[in-house]
Write a structure and sequence with these properties.
2 copies of one chain form a homodimer. Chain A has 5 helices and 13 strands. In chain A, helix 4 (171-178) packs across helix 5. In chain A, a hairpin with a 4-residue loop joins strand 1 (17-21) and strand 2 (26-33). The first copy, chain A, is an alpha+beta fold and 193 residues long. Chain A is globular, with a radius of gyration of 19 Å. At the A-B interface, strand 2, strand 3 and helix 4 of A face strand 2, strand 3 and helix 4 of B.
């Protein structure tokens, strides 16, 4: 039994059946009664959740990574990966951070979560890793190439505002915070305190 | 042949094979060579693109909708739907707007596009419909209930900043615009000119 997938299956109606099991995505379908009493086949996907960590060094430097994968352009991102079976999001975040960068944070704080797509049981858990210390060399799998890209908090905000930071991992909370000086100051404390 | 799906299939590598055809999602897999010469099964989904339209009346009122679907909470959103086989995004936007609200715009302008998920061939095309006039009653399918929710431009910005507007359909461009008065003024012109 896959505890992770069965947990997330709770977003499906009880009569949903798995009709395909993929490498990442499982497909579920069910017959849904519509408002006029007729029925239609509804479809929903289940995939492992994603974790993202913004690692922060004791001096306040934030470690982004230049991440290359086969068949995709190199992107600037925060260390990230999938929650494996039986893992908690926190456990997955610590494991991915260690594997990709060799850093271990003194403490891990929840930043925010998002659900990227309505028809997919899929959560993205975003963390801030405070007081990161290098305790190992990165251990990359053969489908990854990773290079550290250290930046200051102010540059993270600037990249996000310019849209140069490629993904939505932190766009909305950073943009909302940047709308007023108090919000930006509060966000700065969340990363650097 | 499905011209829409075959068009989007171009994001897949040539050796990708369809391993499942769903009601919405098709699943493709291929053997991907990794950096060390080993291989792994990679997976990518293809689904119909989505269109979203912000309809604007001649007096500047923006028509959002309270959208109910079976098995989901009612949400506040812009009229939206799927691009059908053989349709252009513009054609789908006009059709969905007419079906859901009965409005026809004098002109349709591209607002922006986004790709919500890296492993899914799926684009969301967002339009602004200018000078909308009611030319018909809504024709809803049995899986929809829709109620008009007219708001002013300023309220759209406020809802987006507060996060009360539930989806990311317009969050990034609106938040970015709201960061400075010139940007907000320019966005206002895009909706109301």
């Amino acid at each position: 039994m896959n505890p992770n997938r069965s947990y997330r299956k709770s977003n499906l109606p009880p009569n949903a059946k798995r009709v395909f099991a993929g490498a990442i995505f499982d497909v579920y379908q069910w017959e849904q009664e519509l408002y006029d009493g007729s029925h239609a086949t509804f479809e929903r996907l289940v995939r492992p959740d994603t974790v993202v960590v913004f690692p922060v060094l004791p001096d306040g430097t934030i470690i982004l990574v230049e991440d290359s994968q086969p068949g995709r352009d190199t992107i600037l991102t925060a260390p990230a990966g999938r929650v494996e079976e039986g893992e908690t999001p926190e456990g997955a975040a610590l494991r991915e951070l260690l594997e990709e960068t060799g850093y271990r944070p003194e403490r891990l704080e929840e930043f925010y979560t998002r659900t990227p797509a309505e028809k997919i049981d899929w959560m993205v858990h975003v963390f801030i890793g405070k007081g990161c210390v290098k305790i190992a060399e990165p251990v990359l799998d053969p489908g990854e190439r990773i290079k550290e890209h250290p930046i200051a908090f102010e540059e993270l905000v600037r990249l996000t505002i310019e849209g140069a930071y490629p993904y939505d991992e932190c766009a909305n909370p950073v943009l909302r915070a940047a709308l007023d000086p108090a919000g930006l100051s509060e966000l700065r404390m969340r990363f650097l305190s």
